[in-house]
Write a structure and sequence with these properties.
The complex is a heterodimer of chains A (324) and B (253). Chain A has 324 residues and is an alpha/beta fold. Chain A has helices spanning 18-34, 51-56, 75-88, 100-112, 222-231, 239-243, 274-280, 297-300, 309-323; strands spanning 5-8, 11-12, 15-16, 38-44, 61-66, 93-97, 117-121, 123-127, 130-137, 142-148, 153-157, 172-175, 188-194, 207-211, 234-237, 264-268, 285-290, 303-306. In chain A, the strands form 4 sheets. Chain A has a 7-stranded parallel sheet, with helices on both faces. The chains are: A alpha/beta (324), B alpha/beta (253). Bound molecules: flavin-adenine dinucleotide (FAD) and adenosine monophosphate.
């Protein structure tokens, strides 16, 4: 019978990514309810040493495929490796992150393992001994509770929604040979172009200050950048601001942009269209600064200020500077 | 070149979504159905590729009878022919399996999908399709070109973007930024009516329709507790209140 809660640990640039600890912590909780173990699959080059870090977040066993062929993430190599070890171990539950890499890998695994997956979940639990995964659908207008009838029961978890909780376990290392023929690798990463700005990616930021059409122009974003600078925040934008050419596509939050879940999201001059809300309504705290008291964003906001953003935001920056 | 674009018909993003009383699904009455926005980017890229290299663009869609309108929209944009796989509903794996069965006969060089359908928001079908057809995939791309018989695509990741190369045939899933989808022209709409659409029954393609991922229940989103509007006339005073609340009540700064 299928058994065990497994995760795929995510690493990049010589370090585990924080989403790995989030999914490990969720896996630990589910495994404890089921009375089962947590195993992590760790694929990469020079990654064996990461096992103790996973152990800290509740992983009993770490299955490691460490090889130069895994230096760059490629769908071909990683999905082959993970599918092999998961199949060999008749896994019951398999969790990944809904990060960029996790989305690519998890969906390929659905095909390789011929199973079902609830993607980008905001809640998971055990009900009647099975995984019950909850996820937003239709731009967050509806939530679906999913049951996967096949094995492994797969779910990908929205980054930053689940807390990383320390709970030390053995983290015993089990090496496995992924047995991948070099000619099975079809895609190649030709180049990695790092964002020159070195800014925090929106999906990883704890705080986001976002501006919309109310910003009026690209230069005016200075007031938002100043606030973001003081708060250590990333800068986001509505589609209106991106389509106007004021901000790059990578700043767009929403249905056709990024899905973000920071601790704090400050929306300035953003009306709160459903497509924008789709990208940020899982934020823990939402602040709206908008001169229109009727703007729909206020219905989602924990704190609202109805006023001209150009008079309020610089004051917020000044106040924050006093304490930070 | 033989090019396939997969398109899904979805409710318009502005549509009011109402749940059936028993939470088993959504009420379809009154919904305006449109092409999934990400699929518009896929169709556009397919048309550009055909314009540059010659060949045929086939649009493939799985869904109930109304899906034909979306296929006609893609034909009106400039696609050459359509395949309509008829079925009321299917999960990601079964959808991909049916698409794979239909697409295999077309023997494509490139298959475009959207990175995600905005109804179920699952983002799985492109990759599962690639796996079932034994093709490599490049997902969520904002740049695409074919040079020397290979695909080169740009894929944004957290804090960087990758340039990825793949042999053909392959599956590419489209993200906003890839292109600006064209509108269907009036002559395009007229011509679309005469373009061939092959209608296939999902069961006849040998597709198992029992879902692997099942929706046990749908619920409305939980309401957020009503927020606090910080009152007053003085922007500086309101800003001070906000910072205090964020610091002391929410504890997020
Ligand atoms: C298929 C589809 C996908 C989409 N995807 C996205 C998406 O991913 N992300 C997204 O954001 N949108 C998306 N949209 C667009 C969305 O519908 C809205 O058009 C967009 O979010 C509006 O952006 P906005 O709030 O900045 O602008 P507006 O709706 O124009 O709102 C501007 C707000 O600024 C306020 N304002 C103006 N001046 C000031 C001032 N001086 N001080 C304070 N407040 C001021 C106004 O009161 C107003 O509320 C999508 C739409 C479609 C159809
Ligand atoms: N029923 C369908 N018919 C045709 N293509 C589909 C269908 N469902 C999904 N796709 C394709 O797969 C992409 C991702 O869909 P999904 O995995 O459902 O989010 C869509 O953008 C389409 O290109």
């Amino acid at each position: 019978m299928a058994k065990g809660v497994w995760i795929v640990a995510e690493q990049r640039d010589g370090a585990l990514r924080s989403v790995s600890f989030e999914i490990a912590s969720v896996a630990r909780k589910l495994a404890d309810e089921l009375g089962e173990d947590v195993s992590a699959v760790l694929v990469g080059s020079g990654v064996e040493g990461f096992a103790p870090e996973l152990a800290k977040y509740g992983v009993d066993k770490v299955y490691v495929a460490d090889d130069a062929m895994f230096a760059d993430y490629t769908t071909d190599a990683y999905s082959e490796a993970v599918a092999k070890v998961v199949k060999e171990n008749d896994v019951s539950i398999l969790l990944l992150s809904a990060s960029v890499q996790g989305k690519d890998l998890s969906s390929r695994l659905v095909g390789k393992l011929a199973t079902g997956m609830a993607s980008d979940c905001t809640d998971v639990k055990i009900a009647d001994g099975r995984l019950l995964a909850t996820r937003p659908m239709y731009a967050g207008k509806v939530f679906g509770e999913y049951v996967v009838e096949s094995y492994p029961q797969m779910a990908s978890l929205r980054p930053k929604v689940f807390a990383a909780v320390e709970n030390a376990k053995a983290g015993e290392v089990v090496k496995f040979d992924a047995g991948i023929a070099a000619d099975a690798l079809k895609t190649k990463v030709l180049e990695t172009q790092k964002d020159a700005s070195g800014k925090i990616d929106l999906t990883e930021a704890d705080i986001i200050v976002a501006g919309g059409r109310g910003m009026k122009g690209s230069d005016e974003y200075k007031v938002i950048e100043d606030l973001a600078g003081v708060l250590g925040a990333a800068v986001g934008a509505s589609r209106a601001a991106v389509d106007a050419g004021w901000r790059p596509q990578s700043d767009q939050v929403g249905q056709t942009g990024k899905v973000v879940s920071p601790n704090l999201y400050i929306a300035c001059g953003i009306s709160g269209a459903i497509q924008h809300l789709a990208g940020m309504s899982s934020s823990k705290y939402i602040v709206a600064i908008n001169k229109d008291a009727e703007a729909p964003i206020f219905a989602k906001a924990d704190y609202g200020i109805v006023d001209d953003l150009f008079s309020v935001v610089p004051e917020v920056t000044a106040e924050a500077k006093k304490i930070l | 070149m033989n090019i396939v674009a997969c398109v899904k018909q979805v409710p318009d993003t502005e549509a009011l979504i109402k749940l059936k009383a028993d939470g088993s699904g959504i009420e379809e009455g009154g919904i305006k159905w449109v092409m999934n926005p990400y699929d518009e980017y896929g169709v556009e890229e397919a048309l550009k590729l055909k314009e540059a290299n010659g060949g045929d663009v086939t649009v493939v869609s799985l869904g109930p009878a109304r899906t034909m309108e979306t296929i006609r929209t893609a034909l009106a944009m400039g696609a050459d022919k359509g395949v309509h796989i008829t079925i009321d509903d299917a999960d990601a794996y079964n959808t991909a399996a049916a698409l794979a069965a239909a697409i295999k006969e077309i023997n494509p060089d490139v298959i475009f999908c959207g990175q995600r359908a905005i109804d179920d928001d699952s983002g799985q079908v492109g990759s599962v399709l690639a796996e079932l057809l034994g093709m490599p995939q490049i997902t969520i791309v904002t740049g695409f070109e074919v040079a020397d018989g290979k695909v080169k695509a740009i894929k944004p990741i957290e804090g960087a973007q990758l340039v990825i190369e793949s042999p053909m045939p392959c599956v590419v899933t489209a993200q906003k930024g890839l292109n600006e989808p064209r509108y269907a022209s009036l002559p395009g709409i007229m011509k679309a009516k005469k373009k061939p659409v092959d209608v296939k029954d999902a069961a006849a393609l040998g597709i198992d329709v029992a879902p692997k991922a099942k929706i046990a229940r749908m619920t409305p989103p939980s309401e957020r507790a009503p927020g606090k509007i910080i009152a007053g006339d003085d922007p500086a005073a309101k800003a001070a209140d906000l910072v205090k609340l964020l610091r002391e009540e929410a504890k997020v700064i």
